[in-house]
Design goal:
Blueprint (H helix, E strand, L loop, with lengths): L1 H6 L2 E6 L2 E3 L5 E3 L2 E5 L8 H10 L17 E3 L4 E5 L2 H13 L4 E6 L13 H13 L6 E8 L4 H12 L5 E8 L2
Parallel strand pairs: 6-7, 6-8, 8-9
Antiparallel strand pairs: 1-4, 2-3, 5-7
Amino acid sequence: MYHLFIQHDLDSVEVNPLAVAPTGELMVLDGKVMVNDAALGRHDSLAAMMASIQAPLKIVDSLVPTCELKRVAADGNIAVFSNGTGLTLATLELLKQAQGKPASFVDLGEEQCYGSPQMPLSTHLTQGLDLILQDTSVKVVLVNLLCSSVSCLQVAEVLQTIYSGILLMTFLYLSFDW
């Protein structure tokens, strides 16, 4: 698995479940490989395989995200402002491990929610921060965003505009995924 992961610049290789046959052999019952799109140019065989198996996209209304922001309250004094469920939950977990006390969190949702003309980034960030600032117990805002369609500079400029005149300590971690 390691060699497969390294040789093909994969994002992940997962085996679950792994079983042991009565003869003692290991058997992979199910597995998943996540291909790094940025690495396809370096691996012609992967690019050819991806091109042959990708079906045309079919948009189903029930699968389109609603992009509605919600604030989830807690009893602490540190608000978490993040995007994507996994990143938000990981940030909350790390905050708790570091003895921090979350006051609330807002998940911006996936990037398709704020990368469109219908919902520009500045509007989406403003709505999310307005929700956070409704909580009077918030003393610190931890912003952890992972973006691939929006530059970190754009996010920082929007946050600077929104936070001007507000006395809050803000920690930013912005990552641009090529």
